[in-house]
């Protein structure tokens, strides 16, 4: 079980997460998270404090993005057809042991930036084919 919170501390949650995280460079994640979104999949997710400060925005036909209305911190991305929310890596209190697993939309990655870690990568076309079925 991991716990997390936003920058101002009004929104707090607990979650069972995987030990890996996904990196996404799609344009929506870039606009939302300033270049790269790092998300940790959850198998359970509970807002433990500040639910009234959690704004869940429908940012596309298939996904929601949730953030704190007080400080603007990203809390999670949620692809509605794929289980629980993917929490923002940086919102977790402790990220010890989490390692990158995959880089989505690798062909949309900001130039002049590379992850040092070697992970699976998927292009936009591969992501759309994979997630639209
Ligand atoms: Zn906040
Ligand atoms: Zn994305």
Q: What would your notes on this structure say?
A:
This protein is mainly beta. The chain has one domain: Metal Binding Protein, Guanine Nucleotide Exchange Factor, Chain A (Beta Complex), CATH 2.170.150.70. It is 11% helix and 43% strand. It has helices at 27-33, 124-131; strands at residues 2-5, 12-17, 20-24, 37-49, 54-58, 63-68, 74-79, 86-88, 99-104, 120-122. Strands 1, 2, 3, 4, 5, 6, 7, 8, 9 and 10 form a 10-stranded mixed beta sheet that branches. Strand 6 and strand 7 (74-79) form a beta hairpin. The N and C termini lie far apart (31 Å). The mean pLDDT is 95. One zinc ion (ZN) is lined by residues 24, 26, 28-29, 37. One zinc ion is lined by residues 24, 26, 28-29, 37.
Could you say how many structural domains there are in total? 1
Tell me which CATH architecture applies here.
Beta Complex
Q: Give average pLDDT, whole number.
A: 95
Number of helices: 2
The tally of beta strands, per DSSP, is 10
* Cα radius of gyration in angstroms: 14 Å
Measured by DSSP, the beta-strand proportion falls in: 35-45%
Distance between the termini: 31 Å
User: Ions, cofactors, ligands: which are bound?
Assistant: zinc ion
The largest sheet, given as strand count, sense and whether it forms a barrel, is: 10 strands, mixed
Q: Which stretches of 5+ consecutive residues score pLDDT under 50?
A: none
CATH T-level fold name: Metal Binding Protein, Guanine Nucleotide Exchange Factor, Chain A
> What is the global morphology?
globular
Element pattern in H and E = EEEHEEEEEEEH
SSE class: mainly beta
What's the CATH first level? Mainly Beta
Q: Approximately how much helix is present in the residues?
A: 10-25%
